[in-house]
Amino acid sequence: LEDILAHELDAFLSVVYASDHETHGLTTVGEWTSVLRLASLWNSQGIRSLAIDILDRSMSSHQRLVLARAHGIQDWIEPAFESLSTREEPLSVEEAKELPIEDVIRITTAREN
């Protein structure tokens, strides 16, 4: 448990012991990202699927790609590439820093074509 922060564990446990099965008391992307991280780490597929479903509704394509790479969410990768390659604005420096260089090159190459 050394690499687990208290707020991450609180968020995860609020899902495990939820009385409100709609929101589980969590309201932010950060809280659900913590749940996803711990569910992935502990191979808790049901909670992982729930976190993915909720996060999918509230994140940008860039955020999806970052989390997809970090947590192996294959279903998010291609749609995120498509969206980032065709959106009006290019990747910002901050966005590019959060992605592997291969992803940045793929997105910028697609934008040029």
Structure summarized in a few sentences:
The chain is mainly alpha-helical and 113 residues long. The protein has helices spanning 6-16, 29-41, 45-56, 61-71, 74-86, 93-97, 101-112.
β-strand number: 0
Low-confidence stretches: none
Order of helices and strands: HHHHHHH
The profile of the biggest β sheet is: none
Mean pLDDT over the residues: 92
The end-to-end distance, rounded to whole angstroms, is 47 Å
Number of helices: 7
Category from helices, strands and their pairing: mainly alpha
- What fraction strand? under 5%
Question: What is the 3D form?
Answer: elongated
Description:
This protein has 113 residues and is mostly helical. It folds into two domains: 58 residues, no CATH class; 54 residues, no CATH class. It is built from seven helices and no strands. Helix 1 packs across helix 2, helix 2 runs antiparallel to helix 3 and helix 4 runs antiparallel to helix 5. The protein starts with 5 loop residues before the first helix and ends with a helix. 27% of the residues are buried. The model has no long low-confidence stretch (mean pLDDT 92).
